[in-house]
Amino acid sequence: MAHSFWHPLFALGLILTAGYCAGKAANFFRLPQITGYIFAGLALSPSFSGILLAEQIDVLFGFTSDMALAIIAYSIGGSLQMSRIRDLGKEILWINLTEGTGAFICTFLAVYYAAGHLLPLPDSISGTMLTSVCLILAGISVATAPAATMAVLHELRARGPLTTTLLGVVALDDALSIIIFTAALTLAAQISGSGTGNGAAFLQGLFVVAGALAIGLLGGLIFSIFLDTARRPETNLLLTLGAVFLVAGLSATLSFSPLLANMMMGFTITNRVKHADDLFHQLDIIEETIFCLFFCLAAAHFDINVLKTSALLGFVLFVGRFLGKLAGTYIGGKIAHAPPQVYRYLGLTLLPQAGLSLGLIFLAGPILPAKIFELLLSAMLASIIMNEIISPPLVKWVITRVGESNPER
To answer: Please, what sign has the CA dihedral across residues 45, 47, 53, 58?
Structure first.
């Protein structure tokens, strides 16, 4: 039974408590805590118990997701110390390029084939419109959400060649996905004859990337002067959160990517501040709370009815994207002469998909008919649900398998 009288503080307390209990239950079954957070959110959602109302979830998630993703992006950038990635730079660049391209090609082919043999699509999807739809979905498939991966790596205190390569690939994936998507959207607009198919979208995508990197670099140069590992952790944490929120908020205000900006700031700070590892470890104080709120609310935000209406197309997206990232990672790793554990297993850790994918599909709304847009949005949500439930156990299995898990450290 839904309740309209829950105070926001009560709702937050309920989410944190349920997430904690579900996380411990997940650990008992040898699953990562994030899996427990996701199931806790689903259990509290309007689609199941109705304990939380959709309006409450929207308000809480809107604020929490921005805050969580900003911190996560900063942490990813902070993990990319040049001393660690110098020898892996070639691997990261090749794998990032091939796994993104692989996801694009395989998703395009999977949706195109399924549209002619498996999917009951509207009559309005035919010919050039089908090609445009395949291009848009393929472009979105490149994106990899860092939050789920970071949550598992944080829990396992993972460190090693595969972990460093994974963090580098995820950090670059945001930029690559924006560039490929804007190129695909431009081509789709030209094919569908919407009248918006010129180079403006592609140039805008490059501008978004360049602007975010510039803001992140400037923020990193400024705040690296004030951050000092010799200070009290509480002081550094206060200043760090101020820097993260300032850079994210400024980037969003200027229509740049907050994720890229904070990744760049974290990258700049970790390579300028002495003993930067200690500085970023101080974020551990709040990271688990952020992860719990983010994933519980994200799961509660998903409408399970989506699976009834668009499950098959969502499954096709899931399979095409998975095969593309797996094959692309293997090919890129081979080209770059990466260690076997990297090119064999890294593709299994690149499934998480969330906020950026949803943001990109809304950019395609203006060139699509309303019915087709609603279908694609529902299918993308279904694919995201599948990825977010399956990917955390896979990441944990891979990190443990290659011997880079240090949970007791």
So the answer is: positive
- Lookup: tokens for 203: 């140039």
Instruction: State both tokens at 357.
Output: 């994918």
Token reading at 93: 């660049």
The label of the residue with tokens 């510039």 reads: 214
The packing angle between helices 161-192 and 54-78, to 10°, is: 120
Distance CA 80, CA 178 (A): 21
In whole angstroms, what is the distance from residue 188 CA to residue 35 CA?
Answer: 36
Residue 394's alpha-carbon distances to 100, 318, 389, in angstroms, are 19, 15, 10
Whether the CB-CB separation of 15 and 292 falls below 8 Å is answered with yes
DSSP assignments along 111-131, one per residue: HHHHHHHT----TT--THHHH
- Provide block-wise average pLDDT over 10 residues at a time, the chain (409 residues): 67 93 86 82 86 83 80 81 72 89 92 74 66 85 79 85 86 75 75 56 71 94 89 89 95 85 91 86 83 84 69 87 93 90 89 71 72 76 80 89 76
pLDDT in the model for residue 247? 96
Place of tokens 């009248």: 195
DSSP-derived secondary structure letter, 31: -
148 SS3 class: helix
Residue 351: per-residue pLDDT: 86
Closest CA to 376 of 137, 180, 191: 137
Residue with tokens 């799961």: 299
Ramachandran quadrant class, 404 (left: phi over 0; alpha: psi -120 to 50; beta: rest): alpha
C-alpha–C-alpha distance, residues 243 and 237, integer Å: 10
Query: For residues 162 and 304, what is the distance between their CA atoms, to the nearest angstrom?
Result: 34
Best CA proximity match to 66, nearest among 364, 298, 360? 298
Sign of the dihedral through C-alpha 173, 176, 182, 184: negative
| Residue whose tokens read 């898990």 | 405
CA–CA distances in Å: residue 388 to residues 281, 293, 307, 327: 26, 15, 14, 20
Q: Among 116, 380, 242, which residue's Cα sits nearest to residue 125?
A: 116
- The answer to whether residues 358 and 150 touch, using CB atoms and an 8 Å cutoff, is no
Look up residue 83 and give its two tokens. Answer: 């001393």
Distances (CA, A) of 349 to 41, 93, 155, 166, 183: 22, 17, 15, 8, 26
**How far, in Å, CA of 111 to CA of 107, rounded?**
6
Distance CA 249, CA 365 (A): 25
Cβ atoms of 23 and 33 within 8 Å: the answer is yes
